Amino acid sequence: MSREMASLLVLVVTLVGLLLRPLGRGESFWAALGAAAVLAGGLLSIRSAAGHLMEVASVVGFLVAVTLIATLAQRAGVFEALAFALARRARGSQARLFGLFYLLAVGTTTVLSLDATAVLLTPVAVGVARAAGFSVWPYAFATILVANAGSLLLPMSNLTNLLVARQAGLTIGTFASESALPATAVLLSGFVFLRIRYRSELAVPFTVPKAPPIADPALFRLCASVCAGLLPAFLAASWFGVSVEETALGAAAFLLVTVAILRRGAAHPRGLVPWPLVVMFVGLYLVVAAARDNGLGPDIAHWLAPFRDDSLSSLSVTALVAALCSNVANNLPTYLLLAPEASGSQLFAILLGTNVGACLTPIGSLATLLWLDVLRRTAAEEPPSWLVYTRFGITATPVLLGAGLLGLWLRTLVY
User: Fold this and answer.
1) Cα(11)–Cα(34) distance, integer angstroms
2) Do residues 255 and 225 make contact, with C-beta atoms less than 8 angstroms apart?
3) Which comes out higher in pLDDT, residue 376 or 34?
4) For residues 240 and 242, what is the distance between their CA atoms, to the nearest angstrom?
5) Among 52, 59, 56, CA closest to 244
């Protein structure tokens, strides 16, 4: 068996393990097993693996930092207090509450990344819906739709965005200028789609629930201040050449040390660092790197070469390929395989396909799988099956992806 075929076989087996989790083992186990296989089989040398990991070390650091900040904020009750505050401001109107909640999901995704939205905002939506007595599903589906499709605007919104920013040498400002038009088109179309789909549920008024008391006001104010100051800190730091990853790590270190000094209980290390996510990302990255280095990368680059221009047809083909591959094999490995040889608008078309296009099926994005798991643990009703979710994705994804592609194409005409 050739090295290319062997690497591809390990990649396929790893993806099957990640998505189906046979033997009761989680995603991190199968990613680690795949990485061990390519290293032990000589498909990727230790030196090459170390070099590849150095390329993404800062991205892993960012993942750890923002998860730590978001988890401490969740323990302090920041997200819960925000959601109940929105319910009071809505004054019994679900249509108004839905708009406010949608904006909260957009803000959380943009600054704290899509995984924070999927994992931390979903139980908040469930809790507020239970307290007010209305259906949770418009808010639950808004959470995951924004988490995936709404993670286009800034580098810190998604790990794939960070990789794009590193590959293209983009600052926060230049990345936002490239992505603002397609991101806005996706978010607006997503809001309209959800308002139409759930118009009957959102027409039902509700009684404003009483917010639970804040257990530790000092801790709450500290965590809320750090979350509120994070985006200004990212923007200010970029002026001085400080990366998003370094800023996030600094903010996380400050918050963790301060909380540990003031409130030891909230700083308990359990659950603060997302080790399973880190292991999954690192393991999967090495498996994909082996497949790419052993010939798959040049093959893909050759196939995508005719679609590197800025025409709407080329952008659409690239985004559709990325979307279809994401929904079969998950968006992170799809991005890692398709993006290295891409540049310019084609790179952002791949990003559209792997972010927005990944909404089609539950396996398209890890955030969707995490969202389903959170619903199983927190929702009073049975969470949507894979078939129910896919029906939702089949109706939503073409609308959002089409809007994003049109925005990206118009962006190329402007510049």
Assistant:
1) 7
2) no
3) 34
4) 6
5) 59
Q: Which whole number is the average pLDDT over 273-281?
A: 81
- CA–CA separation, 302 and 160 (whole Å): 22
How far apart, in whole angstroms, are the C-alpha atoms of residue 281 and residue 274?
A: 11
Q: What are phi and psi of 260, to 5 degrees?
A: -60, -35
Exposed/middle/buried for residue 182 (C-beta within 10 Å: 0-12, 13-18, 19+): buried
> Tokens for 152?
């286009």
SS (H, E, C) 218-264: HHHHHHHHHHHHHHHHHHHHHHCCCCHHHHHHHHHHHHHHHHHHHCC
Q: What is the reported pTM?
A: 0.88
204's tokens = 């039902």
Residue 141's nearest CA partner among 383, 376, 404 is 383
Q: 270: alpha, beta or left, given left = phi > 0 and alpha = psi -120 to 50? A: beta
pLDDT in tens, 65-104: 888 888 888 888 899 899 899 999 999 999 999 999 999 9
